[in-house]
């Protein structure tokens, strides 16, 4: 449409009238819509400027997903997961979807006015026509969701990057995740992963008695050598700096590939000391949360000098931030892999394609992508698990 008015007046009128919010609480849904506007100044030839406004709609759907079981960590248990699903629709009716999913009490962008920040990010798209990375560095889950939606809109496919994985030629190796629980629950879950063909198993530790956890690890190693099953453990910061060295010594007896976040984050000197003297490789995870600027990332890597870092785009800077982490880690001889942050299949699909893009063409190290079956009410994505690999199929494939 043509508007014989100034740009600022046109822009402000659209902003005033473009936001609407309604509650669909019986289905745990909330909808937020706004119109994304892109302007071009046209010269009529008569000395008068006209402003062409091409409309794109952004819809934000608040969705609560339900776990099949109580997913336990040393910080507590999850039974539900809240995500904001963003859909961009252009004037031709093409759509692109992304997922914004901060983790409660963990993400640096788990803030009370999250939806307001998300609205503001949509208005930034309104004025720029692209994702504004720098203002969104403090909000990695929003950055990741909008990056995903824009890529999906641009490519008109779940295949966000052109890789052998997106072409269906190779699968991505993944680890089998054993959540915390009672000794018997964890033993049963571990057996399920092994019988399912997983060659890399990750155990959440730190919630039950440590001697029982060691017994579980011992039983696994008595049956399977490190050549047959790679074993990772994730402490989620459960150990104190004082007890951590002894517990790492105990774990090292069982040929552990790595331990994630043995102590709480923000103890750089204690973590650096552990990494210097550890008998098994240490991988940083929660430590990276909130470290959003490139200079801060370099300082963390140079101070702590970990053996690995584990990247979750929703927590660690979106696609842009994770690409920075991988590049900086590679230059310092630090290994890395990616995992989901318990997103639904929209986010999981994006993490998988980003991993294939950054680590391809053949991803060798198992990634943490086996979370698509956690929810009873997940959304569709053309992903499938065959043994211990994730494969990407046609857009109409069954998950």
Count of helical stretches: 11
Uncertain parts: 1-55
Arithmetic mean of pLDDT: 84
Beta-strand content estimate: 25-35%
What's the alpha carbon Rg, rounded to whole Å?
23 Å
Biggest sheet: strands side by side, in what order?
8-9-10-11-12-13-14
Order of helices and strands: EHEEEEEHHHEEHEHEHEHEHEHEHEE
Helix proportion: 25-40%
Shape: globular
The major beta sheet can be summarized as: 7 strands, parallel
Structural class: alpha/beta
Termini separation comes to 42 Å
Number of strands: 16
Write the layout of secondary structure elements.
Elements: E1 2-3, H1 7-18, E2 20-24, E3 29-43, E4 49-73, E5 76-89, E6 95-100, H2 114-128, H3 133-136, H4 140-155, E7 172-173, E8 176-178, H5 183-195, E9 200-204, H6 210-223, E10 230-234, H7 244-252, E11 258-260, H8 268-277, E12 282-284, H9 294-304, E13 308-311, H10 318-331, E14 335-338, H11 345-359, E15 383-386, E16 389-392
Parallel strand pairs: 8-9, 9-10, 10-11, 11-12, 12-13, 13-14
Antiparallel strand pairs: 1-4, 2-3, 3-4, 4-5, 5-6, 7-16, 15-16
Written overview of the protein:
By secondary structure, the protein is α/β, with parallel strands linked by helices. The protein is 33% helix and 26% strand. The chain contains 11 helices and 16 strands. The protein has a 7-stranded parallel β-sheet with strand order 8-9-10-11-12-13-14. Strands 1, 2, 3, 4, 5 and 6 form a 6-stranded antiparallel β-sheet that branches. Strands 7-16-15 form a 3-stranded antiparallel β-sheet. Helix 4 packs across helix 10.
Short description:
The chain is of the alpha/beta class. It has eleven helices and 16 strands.
């Amino acid at each position: 449409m043509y508007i014989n008015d100034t740009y600022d007046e046109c822009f402000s009128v659209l902003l005033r009238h473009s936001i609407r919010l309604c509650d669909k609480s019986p289905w745990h849904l909330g909808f937020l819509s706004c119109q994304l506007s892109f302007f071009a100044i046209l010269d009529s030839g008569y000395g008068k400027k006209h402003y062409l406004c091409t409309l794109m709609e952004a819809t934000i759907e608040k969705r609560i997903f339900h776990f099949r079981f109580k997913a336990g960590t040393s910080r507590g248990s999850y039974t539900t997961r809240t995500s904001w699903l963003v859909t961009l629709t252009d004037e031709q009716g093409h759509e692109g979807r992304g997922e914004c999913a901060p983790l409660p009490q963990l993400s640096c962008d788990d803030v009370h006015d999250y939806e307001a920040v998300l609205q503001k990010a949509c208005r930034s798209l309104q004025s720029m026509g692209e994702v504004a990375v720098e203002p969104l560095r403090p909000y990695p889950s929003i950055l990741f969701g909008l990056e995903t939606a824009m890529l999906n809109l641009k490519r008109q496919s779940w295949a966000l990057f052109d890789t052998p994985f997106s072409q269906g030629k190779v699968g991505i190796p993944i680890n089998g995740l054993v959540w915390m629980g009672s000794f018997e629950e964890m033993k049963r879950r571990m057996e399920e992963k092994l019988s399912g063909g997983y060659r890399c198993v990750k155990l959440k530790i730190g919630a039950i008695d440590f001697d029982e956890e060691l017994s579980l690890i011992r039983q696994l190693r008595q049956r399977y050598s490190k050549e047959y099953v790679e074993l990772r453990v994730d402490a989620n910061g459960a150990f104190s700096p004082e007890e951590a060295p002894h517990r790492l010594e105990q774990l090292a007896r069982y040929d552990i590939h790595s331990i994630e976040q043995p102590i709480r984050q923000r103890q750089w000197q204690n973590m650096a000391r552990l990494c210097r003297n550890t008998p098994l490789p240490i991988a940083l995870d929660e430590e990276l949360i909130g470290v959003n600027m490139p200079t801060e990332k370099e300082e963390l890597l140079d101070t702590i000098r970990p053996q690995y870092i584990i990247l979750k785009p929703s927590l660690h800077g979106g696609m842009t931030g994770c690409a920075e982490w991988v590049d900086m880690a590679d230059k310092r001889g630090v290994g890395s892999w990616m995992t989901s942050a318990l997103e639904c299949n929209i986010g999981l699909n994006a993490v998988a394609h980003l991993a294939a893009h950054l680590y391809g063409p053949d991803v060798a190290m198992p990634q943490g992508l086996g979370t698509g079956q956690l929810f009873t009410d997940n959304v569709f994505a053309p992903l499938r698990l065959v043994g211990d690999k994730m494969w990407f199929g046609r857009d109409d494939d069954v998950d």
